[in-house]
């Protein structure tokens, strides 16, 4: 079946540094990718929708300058957490879909810890 | 805008017992409905989805769910659970009106199912 690979699975960084998370569709072309964030003991919240070759659409309350999303190819989207702070510590999950009406596939997530 | 409420944050149950995880939603338009399972430190795996047609949907691992439009519910059930079913389960909706994929999901708060031997 379709696979979405997310890397890294875990990352620890110091406050003020930037962290890049990659989301790759391994056996299909992902026209749209979604980035979610999950705080401990909470549900997943959609952060942004990313379409290949265009700017991401951010949900209300998500800082676009802090969470930079790039979807430069049909198989890769990246989320960069810039100038990370401890409150950015969370579980970030991407999902990808090939086209309208097709199934959604999730990556295994990235646990970010900012110290 | 839509919302999803999972009525139970935790459900403990003994192995081989039946289980029902409850989910209610609200939306001003028609929706697609999903149940996902999440194992610790992993992403989400789709259990089943309701798009149209029969209101009783069968998914993987012996789970099923029934869409009840009048009660705006989509409860998940399994007649006999296993230890391996211990995980967190999320109900989610996607608005039909968006005209795009099912990716823009609104999730419930999650229900932690713990199966005891």
Q: Say how many strands of chain B there are.
A: 12
How far apart lie the N and C ends of chain B?
41 Å
Helix count of chain A equals 0
Spans of at least 5 consecutive residues with low confidence of chain B: none
Question: Roughly what percent helix of chain B?
Answer: under 10%
Beta-strand proportion of chain A: over 45%
Structural class of chain A: mainly beta
Write out key terms for the chains shown:
heterodimer, A: 115 residues, mainly beta, seven-stranded mixed β-sheet, four-stranded antiparallel β-sheet, 11 strands, 52% strand, globular, B: 117 residues, six-stranded mixed β-sheet, 12 strands, 51% strand
Q: Short description, anyone?
A:
Chain A is mainly beta and 115 residues long. Chain A has no helices and eleven strands.
Descriptive report:
The complex is a heterodimer of chains A (115) and B (117). The model of chain A has no long low-confidence stretch (mean pLDDT 90). Chain A is globular, with a radius of gyration of 13 Å. In chain A, the strands form two sheets. In chain A, strands 2, 4, 5, 6, 9, 10 and 11 form a seven-stranded mixed β-sheet that branches. A four-stranded antiparallel β-sheet of chain A has the order 1-3-8-7, with no helix packed on it. Chain A is mainly β and 115 residues long. Chain A contains no helices and eleven strands. Chain A has strands at 4-7, 10-13, 19-25, 32-38, 44-51, 57-58, 67-73, 76-81, 90-97, 105-106, 110-114. The N and C termini of chain A lie far apart (37 Å). Chain B has 117 residues and is an all-beta fold. Helix content of chain B is 0%, strand content 51%. Chain B contains no helices and twelve strands. In chain B, the strands form three sheets. In chain B, strands 2, 5, 6, 10, 11 and 12 form a six-stranded mixed β-sheet that branches. A four-stranded antiparallel β-sheet of chain B has the order 3-9-8-7, with no helix packed on it. In chain B, strands 1-4 form a two-stranded antiparallel ribbon. Classes of the chains: A mainly beta (115), B mainly beta (117). The interface between A and B is medium-sized, with 28 and 20 residues.
